[in-house]
Design the sequence.
């Protein structure tokens, strides 16, 4: 996979959202792995603070109402390796598609129903597209499936409606049955391997005892994978070139980078790497991760912490990490930490990275 040049950073300031871009190779990585390894004894702590983010490419402002949240979902064009499109969703389910490369906004149909805060999404290639040139599909699901929520789970596909005009449409799908009215979806992963139907995997927390379920995108049917749960929070990324493992952020303190094989019947944790030396009173409230290619990851973790005056503050730590093969004959994977930078929230907050 060719390394990504940019990471999209979504910022929030009250009812205003903005999208900017950073170059992780320049800001979060040393010129070489050897330089990062040489700096390892000194980079356990946060290297520097970020005083300001790059100028935004897009600004979206919501009315001054109590619930003015927006969410931003990556719409990866897996057919051509594109990572520039972002679906912007407001609290009522209205949408707009932003192309960060072209700097353009595209009109797309609104969701049939709102998805609540922090919906999850999956980008796949439709195996039976109406138009081979528009085979990308985006699946969006609310984290809190409810019985009365008729449109908790939908998919955006290019299809032919009843009036015979081809266009992008949202299609209603069944929610994960065991999660309805019982549990939230704590993490999600896409299993899309050659020769097999694309599978969407959702998992709950251990405390819920709901387990993990899989959705077959070809049959539109759910099945239970097991009573076990995935130890991650948020999106889990599949990286075939790194032992065909799935990578994510641990749901429990100290929120390490972890990897496991989801292609087996009962997955076990394969690796757990400490990427930050955190004070014990730092509590992670959110996180997002982007795989850049060439074994490199960009990770943003949002924390709440106490200062010397016992006042609570919030900030985000953005890190550049590299995973590579090391040693013979076992050739285990190792993690090399490059740079970690702290951005303290004052007026502007980091919402997520994509």
Sequence:
């Amino acid at each position: 996979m060719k390394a990504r040049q940019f990471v999209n950073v979504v910022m929030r300031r009250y009812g205003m959202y903005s999208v900017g871009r950073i170059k992780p190779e320049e800001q979060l990585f040393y010129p070489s792995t050897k330089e990062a390894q040489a700096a390892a004894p000194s980079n356990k702590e946060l290297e520097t603070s970020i005083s300001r983010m790059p100028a935004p490419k897009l600004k979206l402002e919501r009315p001054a109402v109590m619930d003015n949240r927006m969410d931003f979902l990556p719409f990866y064009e897996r057919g051509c390796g594109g990572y520039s499109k972002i679906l912007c969703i407001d609290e009522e389910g209205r949408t707009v598609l932003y192309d960060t490369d072209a700097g353009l906004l595209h009109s797309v149909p609104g969701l049939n129903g709102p998805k609540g805060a922090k919906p999850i999404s999956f980008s796949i290639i439709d195996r039976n597209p109406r138009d081979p040139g528009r085979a990308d599909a985006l699946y969006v699901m609310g984290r809190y499936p409810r019985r009365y929520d008729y449109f908790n789970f939908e998919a955006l596909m290019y299809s032919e409606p009843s009036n015979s005009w081809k266009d992008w449409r949202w299609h209603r799908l069944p929610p994960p049955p065991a999660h309805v009215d019982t549990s939230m979806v704590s993490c999600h992963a896409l299993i899309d391997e050659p020769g097999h139907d694309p599978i969407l995997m959702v998992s709950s927390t251990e405390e819920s005892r709901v387990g993990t379920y899989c959705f077959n995108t070809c049959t539109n049917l759910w099945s239970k994978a097991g009573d076990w749960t995935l130890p991650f929070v948020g999106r889990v990324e599949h990286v075939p070139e790194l032992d065909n493992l799935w990578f994510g952020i641990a749901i429990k303190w100290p929120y390490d980078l972890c990897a496991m094989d989801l292609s087996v019947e009962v997955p076990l944790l394969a690796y757990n790497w400490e990427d930050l030396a955190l004070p014990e009173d730092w509590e992670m409230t959110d996180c997002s991760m982007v795989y850049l290619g060439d074994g490199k990851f960009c990770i943003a973790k949002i924390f709440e912490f106490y200062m010397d005056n016992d006042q609570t503050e919030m900030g985000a730590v953005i890190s550049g990490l590299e995973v590579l093969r090391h040693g013979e004959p076992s050739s285990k994977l190792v993690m090399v930490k490059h740079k970690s930078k702290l951005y303290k929230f004052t007026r502007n907050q980091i919402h997520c990275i994509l």
About this structure: The helical segments are 24-27, 33-38. The domain at 7-353 is CATH 2.130.10 (Methylamine Dehydrogenase; Chain H). The longest strand covers residues 312-326. The two ends are 17 Å apart (CA to CA).
